[in-house]
Amino acid sequence: MTFEQIVALLEKTDVAAAKALRDFVAAKDGEISKVKGDFKTLKTKAKDDADKAMAASEKAEKVLEALGVDVDADAADLDEAISKALKDKSADPALQKQIAKLKGKISEQETTYKTQLADERGKRFDGMKRTTLMEALAKNNADDPSLIVDMLLGKMVVSEEDESITFNDDKNSKVDDFVKDFLMAHPKLVANTQNPGAGSLLGNKGGVGDDSPDVAFVKSLAKGNEQSEGNAKALAGYFE
User: Fold this and answer.
1) Paired strand residues for 166
2) Is 52 within the bounds of a domain?
3) Average pLDDT for residues 28-48, to the nearest whole number?
4) Distance, CA of 204 to CA of 23 (rounded, Å)
5) Mean pLDDT over residues 117-145, rounded?
6) Please, which of 1, 22, 193, 208 could form a disulfide with 212 given CB 3.0 to 4.6 Å?
7) pLDDT exceeding 90 applies to what percent of the chain?
8) Source organism's superkingdom (predicted)?
9) Is 21 contained in some domain?
10) Confidence class for position 221, pLDDT limits 50, 70, 90
């Protein structure tokens, strides 16, 4: 049965509940679209930085070639090979000074680009994990995906080889499987789509209010060091 068929069937018995369900799904779709947009921007920036790093690397190789340094053969001790090449050109002090200065600039640029690439790669992976987790939480009717995602994000890992995403548990669980098990173990975090306000943890117009001890505790876990394993364990223990 499709979502539209479910809503149509629900409208025959409870129009308000059908509208609430439709609004709930629309809100979650909006959250996911925003995360996807942010991820697309981050991916573009990461590609630009990678292109810059490649250009800097090519410049460095040209300089080393001019010095007579074989990057592949001298890779084990590149600094020593460069130093030797500089000493061999000591007959021209001015040239030696220029080369040393250029070497320093190239080294600084390479360090900067490597740092930027590592940072952007980390952000890109975080964006991928957040998007995948938000989709799984919304698909499985989590009451507040944006809150829960910060508590589970730190347990996710991205494969270096194929960039697949799993949870770092004893089963190396797929994201959707982990979310299903997690919400089944903690039903207070599941939205009540049958009767709005009937008692979900963060339900609309009823149930546990935003100022309740339950909600305050969950939000305190999500605040600060959201991705820590300690927070995830604390949440699991609280709702057992």
Assistant:
1) 157, 174
2) yes
3) 74
4) 11
5) 84
6) 208
7) 0
8) Bacteria
9) yes
10) low
Angle between helices 93-139 and 15-67 (to 10 degrees): 160
Provide the 10 A C-beta neighbour count for residue 15: 10
Query: Which of 29, 27, 47 lies closest to 37, judged by CA?
Result: 29
Q: Which of 63, 59, 107 is nearest to 85 (CA)?
A: 63
For residue 207, CA distances in Å to 200, 202, 240 come to 6, 8, 20
- Tally of domains in the chain: 1
Residue 45 and residue 120: Cα distance in Å, rounded?
8
Residue 138 pLDDT > 80: yes
Answer yes or no: is 23 within a domain. Answer: yes
3-state SS assignment for residue 62: helix
Q: What is the DSSP letter of 199?
A: S
Domain presence at residue 215: no
Which residues are 174's β-sheet partners?
A: 166
pTM above 0.90, yes or no: no
Question: In a 10 Å sphere around its CB, with 0-12 CB exposed, 13-18 middle and 19+ buried, how is residue 202 labelled?
Answer: buried
Q: b/e for 162-190, b at 16 or more Cβ within 10 A?
A: eeebbbeeeeebebeebbeebbeebebbe
SS3 at position 240: coil
Strand bridging mode 165-167 / 156-158? antiparallel
